[in-house]
Design brief:
By secondary structure, the protein is α+β, with helices and mostly antiparallel strands. It is built from eight helices and 20 strands. It has three domains: about 70 residues, Uridine Diphospho-n-acetylenolpyruvylglucosamine Reductase, domain 2 (2-Layer Sandwich), CATH 3.30.43; about 150 residues, 2-Layer Sandwich (Uridine Diphospho-n-acetylenolpyruvylglucosamine Reductase, domain 3); about 100 residues, Uridine Diphospho-n-acetylenolpyruvylglucosamine Reductase, domain 1. Helices cover about 25% and strands about 25% of the residues. The strands form six sheets. It has a five-stranded antiparallel beta sheet with strand order 6-7-12-10-11, covered by helices on one side. A four-stranded mixed beta sheet has the order 1-2-5-3, covered by helices on one side. The protein is globular, with a radius of gyration of 20 Å.
Amino acid sequence: MHLHLKNNISLKDYNTFGIDVKAMHLAEAESEESLRNLLLQIKSTQTPLMILGGGSNVLLMDDYSGWVILNKLKGIRIVSETDDTVLVKAGSGEVWHHLVLWSVERNLGGIENLSLIPGSVGAAPIQNIGAYGVELKNSFHSLEAMEIASGNIHTFTNEACKFGYRNSVFKNEHKGKYVITSVVLELKKNPLFNTTYGAIQSELQKQGNNKLSVKAISDAVIAIRRSKLPDPAQIGNAGSFFKNPEISKEAFETVFKNHPEMVHYPGADGKIKIAAGWMIEQCGWKGYRKGDAGCHVNQALVLVNYGNATGRDIYNLAMEIKSSVKNKFGVEIEPEVNLIGTAT
């Protein structure tokens, strides 16, 4: 079987930060069979392995002395449907936004608020991606994943994925043990729309959409994201670099006393979620640039590569930002982006 192997190849075109590091070996997996063959081949060499989908949630800090597999598992199809719901199965190598558009075209609701989130379908459950009041777990049914050690396919239900805020079992006890091959979502024929985020309401009015629909909400979210977030094709970035921290009510009250203007939301389990972007901006980082590493001029949560920044440059800037937020507010912020390299 032809496995499209390349050696000593730059990953610059395979990560949205545009970081120019080299991989010792690069291969594409276009089917479960080719993925299984690759995993068996890699296992026999006992070298490190990294799976890349859209490359939109990684910061590569060093040359990679192992195998990189590009996930090219494609296909979107309806598995089953009832009067109210449709189960849709998508290959993990599909672009996430393409799946959203596919759903919008068919007027199937549930993921329209997650329009234009960069990355692949397979990365979505790892992160439990979320935006504008909706998380993936709200529409998630199940996924299939190949166990790296055996090449066997396992099914994970919504419950088995242990979804949390930007979190799942694949970031914890199953980290590095599976490759997600497909995802099944339960989409609704007559959805309840979530427009609780004020920006959506005002964008709908601006666009003159008086009638709520899957497409109207998707269009509004796309417009908001385009106005706020830089396009990785124009300037290297991985979207939001930091997670919004969640802290206990008691801890929040202490911080809030000193910073009554602090932007915050209700979090999970009675915790309070604080806007990391707001704190970063208060520390003076918005629009900051050092060499080719910077903090975006319109959105402090987004770190950017203006051209030739290294992963290490971006990482060092991120750690400076993290430290200044801790000093000013006493709150720890953690990267949402996966850090690949020796600093971790």
